[in-house]
């Protein structure tokens, strides 16, 4: 099998995130000037985790109960399996009540010693519990130091009432005083995000570039997604922090993976490692499967009994959370955004209830309700009815049946408006394949959206079968992509001062990773291989700039934001003032989005759907008007400076609506006041980002009009791993029939300067296009970045994942 040999090279980062005057980052720091916390690896990550766990005490109790929970599940299961005589319990065996002898725990232990499988499970569980115990002790020691860091350095004691923005601002301030990062005089917000989200940004990028095998098409079935916590854990183990992983520590990629000369050897080594980890998963499959079943039984049985309809509820899938995540988006920011989109997503999915199932469910619910009503009436008349065999069980099952049937009966007041619901969803989730727009009423769109927003029952079922499916995916799907994975980490890794090795996509550099169809035309030099799909770079940049208004972006990024702002004002000036009278003084943030969603653009899409240019223009005008009204004074995209008056009026409305006296609030705790202020600003920032997402999608739709839609949801010509093109095909002059790769470009030889991208177009190879990273050995660096020493600063921990469109054949 011929290998698909492509020339790759490391290029220096196009810009430095360091503040002006720090071009020479290698400064000498005397021992006495070093912070007492500089030795803590992943300081930012521990600070963030402790904040999200509401302080040291809550974290400690949570960790202790996790250890106790593991012991309880194993011990209680062994007790039920070996120490209970079920024939006596179910009265299937005669019992001599005059016999006073009892079965004791030592008698149970004899039965356990004779069961080899139980002994094996106990040994594996014991080893795993000891591992968790050691990790618990280490984490407690680290978090105790982080607690001291909060108290002594950050001067923050009421952690549950402090927002992350406040904590982050304090970290930026104390950098000069405590020098917690010895390689930089100042830390930026982006530095902190990089150190916390290092591995998660890599996973987001790999999903965005369709590198991870989580999409499959089985014979006779539609394309499906399989991505579970077990599979995610194995991806992280292989790439980031397991033995033999690609990273030598938690902030630095191993040097051999930064060079392209031995890529084939490294790919073979990685494939071998994936194989062994897959075999280990296969051997441990029985134990993990038993644990998954027991944990699910103990966790969900009581919930299902109390709320039988909970299995019919929906949740954002792991795949959905990965696909919808921005670069440099913290966990709480992501979950807050998705939580706001939960209700419209549920309404959208409920629009597609089958009429046939509705008829059946109504009649089944009627019959079951009739039987249940009779049993309840008899029970009320005489409680001895409950002692009749199976009556209590029948009442329970009938109640469950009625609850399940109700989930298939739609609300009689529901209006079928899928297009508008999908637009509301887009305002919160920010990402959507191009072909969904205008096709929201189709079952194909609904089925694809269900991969992001799945039933809770499907989520539980996938977790239960994960121990069986995960080894298969590792051995037969991930292993064949080892060469592409090696190339990805080499080509999309950049070293940042004070941060270490990070994913170059996380730099949100429009010039390096922008997409021409997402307002980056003329500003990006990226080839198809280097472009982030679905507008990920542009939308992530806007989200980060809005979430962190104090961040000073680089020059290229500032130019992109300024150009967007100018276009907003130009579109807003062209819209008539009486068409969309949005005003910050008369409308709260959610009303702004609601007015935009229900504005003329929606009506236009209904009545003039055949004229897409009219629809797009109306949508752009509405979005521009909304953005301009959100920041009327300065026209800035940042909130804190322009929303002081709005903040005051909004707080007054909130206090008046809740009956709270303003004097009570003003005399209350400063922590509560700060939290209220932060919540108001966060609400306005969320609103601004929602409108930006709608506005940018309208721009993208306008730019894409008349062109082939290019998105990553369905890549019919997805990459066939690192299998190569035969030499005789590679030498043909016409490249249109090449089974090209979507995950790395191709070249015909060392002297070739072009490679074939999507649709057979010729694009620049990686050799002439800037990416992030190191220059190849023997080549001069083309950027102004200087080479850094190996020792970087403290950083983050393991990774997480995203969406992917790889088809395993």
Automatic annotation (TrEMBL):
Locate the region Disordered. 1-26, 649-669, 706-758, 773-801
- Tell me one GO biological process term: protein localization to phagophore assembly site
Where found, per UniProt?
A: Cytoplasmic vesicle, Autophagosome membrane; Endoplasmic reticulum membrane; Golgi apparatus, trans-Golgi network membrane; Late endosome membrane
InterPro entries in the record: Autophagy-rel_prot_9
Q: Does the UniProt entry include the keyword Ubl conjugation?
A: yes
May I have one GO cellular component term?
Answer: mitochondrial membrane
What membrane topology does the annotation report for this chain? Multi-pass membrane protein
**Keywords associated with the record:** Acetylation, Autophagy, Cytoplasmic vesicle, Endoplasmic reticulum, Endosome, Glycoprotein, Golgi apparatus, Lipid transport, Membrane, Mitochondrion, Phosphoprotein, Transmembrane, Transmembrane helix, Transport, Ubl conjugation
Q: Where along the chain is composition biased (Basic and acidic residues)?
A: 1-10, 707-718
Q: Which Pfam families match?
A: ATG9
Q: Where do transmembrane segments lie in this chain? A: 67-90, 110-130, 274-298, 352-378, 390-409
State where it is primarily located: membrane
Keyword Hydrolase recorded? no
Catalytic reactions of this protein:
a 1,2-diacyl-sn-glycero-3-phosphocholine(in) = a 1,2-diacyl-sn-glycero-3-phosphocholine(out); a 1,2-diacyl-sn-glycero-3-phosphoethanolamine(in) = a 1,2-diacyl-sn-glycero-3-phosphoethanolamine(out); a 1,2-diacyl-sn-glycero-3-phospho-L-serine(in) = a 1,2-diacyl-sn-glycero-3-phospho-L-serine(out)
Compositionally skewed regions (Polar residues) per UniProt? 743-755
Q: What does this chain do?
A: Phospholipid scramblase involved in autophagy. Cycles between the preautophagosomal structure/phagophore assembly site (PAS) and the cytoplasmic vesicle pool and supplies membrane for the growing autophagosome. Lipid scramblase activity plays a key role in preautophagosomal structure/phagophore assembly by distributing the phospholipids that arrive through ATG2 from the cytoplasmic to the luminal leaflet of the bilayer, thereby driving autophagosomal membrane expansion.
Q: Which family does it belong to?
A: Belongs to the ATG9 family.
Full protein name: Autophagy-related protein 9
Record the organism.
Gasterosteus aculeatus aculeatus (three-spined stickleback)
């Amino acid at each position: 099998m011929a290998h698909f040999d492509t020339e790759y090279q490391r290029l220096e980062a196009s810009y430095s995130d360091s503040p002006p005057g720090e071009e020479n980052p290698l400064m000498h720091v005397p021992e006495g000037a070093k912070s007492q916390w500089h030795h803590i690896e992943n300081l930012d990550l521990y600070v963030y985790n402790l904040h999200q766990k509401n302080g040291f005490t809550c974290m400690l109790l949570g960790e202790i109960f996790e250890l106790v929970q593991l012991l309880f599940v194993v011990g209680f299961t062994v007790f039920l399996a070996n120490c209970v005589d079920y024939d006596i319990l179910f009265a299937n065996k005669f019992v001599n009540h005059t016999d006073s002898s009892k079965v004791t725990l030592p008698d149970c232990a004899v039965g356990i010693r004779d069961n080899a499988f139980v002994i094996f499970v106990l040994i594996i569980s014991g080893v795993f519990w000891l591992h968790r115990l050691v990790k618990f002790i280490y984490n407690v020691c680290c978090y105790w130091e982080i607690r001291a860091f909060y108290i002594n350095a950050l001067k923050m004691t009421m952690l549950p009432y402090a927002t992350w923005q406040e904590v982050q601002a304090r970290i930026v301030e104390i950098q000069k005083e405590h020098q917690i990062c010895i390689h930089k005089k100042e830390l930026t917000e982006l530095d902190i995000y990089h150190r916390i989200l290092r591995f998660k940004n890599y996973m987001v990028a790999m999903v965005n570039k369709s590198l991870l095998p989580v999409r499959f098409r089985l014979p006779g079935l539609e394309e499906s997604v399989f991505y579970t916590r077990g599979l995610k854990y194995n991806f992280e183990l292989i790439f980031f922090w397991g033995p033999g992983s690609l990273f030598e520590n938690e902030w630095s990629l191993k040097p051999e993976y930064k060079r392209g000369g031995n890529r084939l050897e490294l790919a073979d080594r990685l494939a071998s490692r994936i194989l062994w980890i897959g075999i280990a998963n296969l051997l441990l499959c029985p134990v993990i499967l038993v644990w998954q079943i027991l944990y699910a039984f103990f966790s969900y049985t009581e919930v299902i009994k109390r709320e039988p309809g909970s299995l019919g509820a929906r949740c954002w899938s792991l795949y959905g959370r990965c696909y919808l995540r921005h670069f440099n988006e913290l966990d709480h920011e992501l979950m807050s955004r998705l939580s706001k989109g939960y209700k419209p997503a549920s309404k959208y999915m409920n629009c597609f209830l089958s009429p046939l199932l509705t008829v059946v469910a109504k009649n089944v619910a009627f019959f079951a309700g009739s039987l249940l009503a009779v049993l309840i009436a008899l029970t009320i008349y005489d409680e001895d009815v409950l002692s009749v065999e199976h009556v209590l069980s029948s009442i329970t099952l009938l109640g469950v049946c009625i609850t399940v049937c109700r989930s298939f009966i739609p609300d009689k007041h529901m209006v079928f408006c899928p297009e508008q619901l999908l637009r509301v969803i887009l305002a919160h989730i920010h990402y959507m394949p191009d072909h969904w727009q205008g096709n929201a009423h189709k079952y194909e769109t609904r089925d694809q959206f269900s991969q992001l927003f799945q039933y809770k029952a499907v989520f539980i079922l996938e977790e239960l079968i994960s121990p069986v499916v995960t080894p298969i995916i590792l051995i037969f799907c991930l292993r064949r992509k080892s060469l592409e994975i090696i190339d990805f980490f080499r080509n999309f890794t950049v070293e940042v001062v004070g941060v270490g090795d990070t994913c170059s996509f996380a730099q949100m550099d429009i010039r390096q990773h922008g997409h021409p169809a997402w307002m980056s035309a003329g500003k990006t030099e990226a080839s198809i291989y280097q472009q982030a799909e679905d507008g990920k770079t542009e939308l992530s940049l806007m989200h980060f700039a809005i979430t962190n208004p104090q961040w000073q972006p680089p020059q290229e990024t500032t130019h992109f934001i300024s150009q967007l702002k100018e276009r907003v004002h130009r579109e807003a000036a062209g819209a008539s003032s009486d068409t969309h009278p949005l005003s910050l003084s008369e409308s709260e943030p959610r009303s702004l989005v609601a007015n935009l969603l229900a504005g003329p653009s929606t009506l236009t899409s209904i009545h003039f759907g055949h004229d897409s240019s009219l629809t797009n223009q109306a949508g752009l005008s509405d979005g521009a008007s909304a953005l301009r009204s959100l920041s009327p004074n300065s026209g800035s995209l940042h909130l804190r400076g322009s929303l002081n008056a709005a903040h005051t009026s909004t707080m007054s409305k909130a206090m008046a609506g809740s009956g709270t006296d303003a004097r009570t609030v003003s005399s209350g705790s400063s922590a509560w006041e700060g939290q209220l202020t932060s919540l108001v600003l966060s609400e306005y920032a969320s609103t601004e980002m929602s409108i930006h997402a709608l506005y940018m999608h309208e721009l993208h739709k306008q730019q894409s009009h008349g062109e082939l839609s290019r998105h990553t949801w369905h890549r019919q010509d997805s990459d066939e791993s690192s299998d190569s093109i035969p030499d005789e095909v590679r030498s043909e002059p016409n490249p249109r029939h090449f089974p090209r790769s979507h995950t790395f470009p191709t070249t015909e030889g060392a002297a070739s300067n072009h490679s074939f991208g999507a649709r057979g177009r010729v694009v620049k190879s990686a050799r002439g296009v800037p990416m992030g990273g190191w220059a190849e050995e023997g080549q001069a660096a083309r950027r102004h970045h200087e080479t850094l020493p190996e020792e970087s600063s403290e950083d983050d921990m393991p990774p997480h994942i995203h969406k992917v469109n790889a088809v395993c054949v």
